[in-house]
Each structure stands twice: as structure tokens, then as C-alpha cells.
Amino acid sequence: MWDLNEIYFGSDRDKFQDDLVNDLAFFNGLCSSCKICIQQNKSECRGNFSETVEKFRTKCEDLITNCAWNGQNFSCCDAFLPLKTEFGQCYTINSIHTNPQYGMKLINNRQSGPGSLYIFALEDIQIHLHSSYAVPYINTEHDLQETILWGLQKEILFKTVELFNDENLHQQKISQRRCRFSSEFSKSNKIKLFDVYSYSTCITTCVAEAQIELCNCTHHLMPENKLNNTNICTIDGLMCLSENFGNYFELFLIIYI
């Protein structure tokens, strides 16, 4: 990050710029530099936040390499495809939400035995384990995410248990079964961030709705609304989200419940 700041802004830059870039590129709901931006009316805070993210977030080819599935090498970035999440752009494999879908299907069964995926990380990375219908989201269980620092080796072992719904469940009202199938978007929703419904995409949408309710905008890392234009937060909006972080989390819970 420091090297890129040096390239884009020079060695004589205001060191506040480094804090601002970090808050924008990896916005997590809190923005410590936003208050200084507003109090001192700094010009650095008036730029295009999405452009800042594009410059400072690591691209796939600079993030992972030497990928292999069951000992067979494959091109990492032909298989790990971009996916917009509330954390910004991630790279995921075997997902229905990417374009094209899945990228590369990783299949294992009783005949093939356990699958083995190998990745060499070129930077510190955070890994989320999720189903093909799910996306990384604010409530991802801690045992389904790992932070791997550069130079360290990590082995993650897991198994999946498939659940199948009875066909008669389709005939029950959503209010009765208290869940939706992947094609069942709410017609009343004004926000649609993903084309396929899942629990995690629902939670992400609830977070976006809570942000709009409190601050009339969503932060710049949030996936684009497919139904209509949604206000993207300026520095004032990010300050609002930061000040209301606990409140919008509570409001999100109310919307969800």
C-alpha cells in the first residue's frame, strides 16, 4: 500500500492520504479519516472512491498463482472470477454468481474421493469458504474464513453435508416455511444486488437497505443495485455510516427479522 501511495501521490504527500486510501480501499463500516476530511475540508476527500479502490486493491494475477485441483494445474484467474460483495471485489471459484457461472467446476464424489485445491498466495489474503449459491457477507461464520499471511502455509480441511428439500415444500407459502428458494425474490424489494437468491445475498441486501434507511446511500464497495440507481456515499455519507455503525447493524437485524 505504501509503495502505491508513493507512486500515485509522491513522497512529499500529506501522510493523511495514506490513512484515507486505506479507509476507502478496505472500508469496513468505520472511517477514521472521514472526520478529518470534513473538519478540514481536504481536497483529497472529493475524488472518485471507486477509482481509488481500483488502483489500490490487488488484481487476481498479482494475488494468487500456481493453482492446482487434485494435482492438475490450471490457470488461477481463468477459474477464480471477479465477484462483487459488500467487502468489494473478491475472486471466487465454483460460484453461480460469476460471469460466466462457476468459472471452473470443482467436483468430487465417492468415486473420485476427497478433492484437493492448492493455491500459492502472492500477498496476504482472506479466504471465505462458501457454497456455489452463497457470497461472503457480514455474518460469515468465523470457522468459514481464514486470514493467511504471506509466507505462511495453511491447510484447511472441511466436509459438506448436502440437504434436499421435499418437493411439497414448494407448495407452502414463504411465511409458513420461513425461507425462499433461489428464484424467489421479493417483488416489493427496491434493491436487487444479485441475480440468484440465497441466505447470504439476502443478508447483504438487508445491510444495503439499512444503510439507505439511515444515511440515504450505500458505501462504494457494495454491489450495484440492478433495479434502479442507488446513491453511492460521498465522504459525508461514509461519515454517517461510521457514526451509525452500531445503529445500522441493529436496523439490519430488525429488517432481517
Task: Explain what you see.
There is one protein chain. The strands form three sheets. This protein has a three-stranded antiparallel sheet. The longest helix is centred in the last third of the chain and has 17 residues. Helix 3 packs across helix 8 and helix 7 packs across helix 9. The chain has three domains: 55 residues, no CATH class; 89 residues, no CATH class; 85 residues, Orthogonal Bundle (Helix Hairpins), CATH 1.10.287. The model has no long low-confidence stretch (mean pLDDT 85). It has nine helices and seven strands. By secondary structure, the protein is of the alpha+beta class.
How would you sum up this structure in a few lines?
The chain is an alpha+beta fold and 257 residues long. The chain contains nine helices and seven strands; from the N terminus they run ααααββαβββββαααα.
